[in-house]
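PROTEIN–LIGAND DATA SHEET

This sheet pairs a single protein chain with one bound small molecule, fe (ii) ion, given as SMILES. Inputs appear in the order they were entered. The predicted three-dimensional arrangement of chain and ligand is reported afterwards as a token string under its own label.
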Amino acid sequence: MIRIAHISDLHFGREIPEVVEALVDELHALHPDLIAVSGDLTQRARAAEFLKVRVFFDRLPQPLIVVPGNHDVPDYRLTRFVAPWSRWKRWLGSDMEPVVEGDRFCAVGINSARRWGPYLDWSRGRVNLAQIRRVEQVFSQGAKDLHILVAHHPFLLTASSASRHAIARADIALPRWFRAQVDLILGGHVHMAYSGVVDGIVVAQTGTTLSSRLKGEPNSYNRIRADTDSIEIDNMVWFDGGFKCQDTARYCKRQAGWVAG
Ligand SMILES: [Fe+2]
Ligand SMILES: [Fe+2]
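PREDICTION REPORTED AS:
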């Protein structure tokens, strides 16, 4: 059994201290094999916010895999264009597309946030051809029981999130990553919790785990149990002073890829 805690859209600067403290305790009790953090760690990419993120990460059980979101690029002055990742690198290190391996899993992060987003919308994200190739290469270098990809922008939208934009070039990436044996993609950005299967790959989204930037849903994170041929995703929702499991989505692996049920 591989245990993953998937948290997202922390938005330090708008964090709720009570939720932060509860999550730290809960993640220690959970003993996950991996904590995946799918971007938007800060609200406005301020130095003080990155410092809070650093302190928070240092309190968590390891290992973590962390990728940036659109809110982690400064949205003001020249910094966005001249040195968009300087603050990230100062507080969180230079590897913005990490690879984290365990005995039974391999997780790859990609940075989907852009100085100029698609159609000049800085909030939107994109995967480029080099990133698609790199993911293929990593997973071709020795298969594990579970191959995980972490990116901020969503590869799946549902009826409730249909007004948002999926990551650009998903239509190119997903069939290639299915052939590269990607099992599970973890994302954020829309601040809503849901999961499903796209092109034979399980895509799981979670809401804003720690912040008051709620989009009609409470704070949430995903508690995931996975094996070679099964993935279970608990939607953990903040309610009455703690995270409670609201529902569990189940997926199993068939010859033609992952299916619900
Ligand atoms: Fe966000
Ligand atoms: Fe975002």
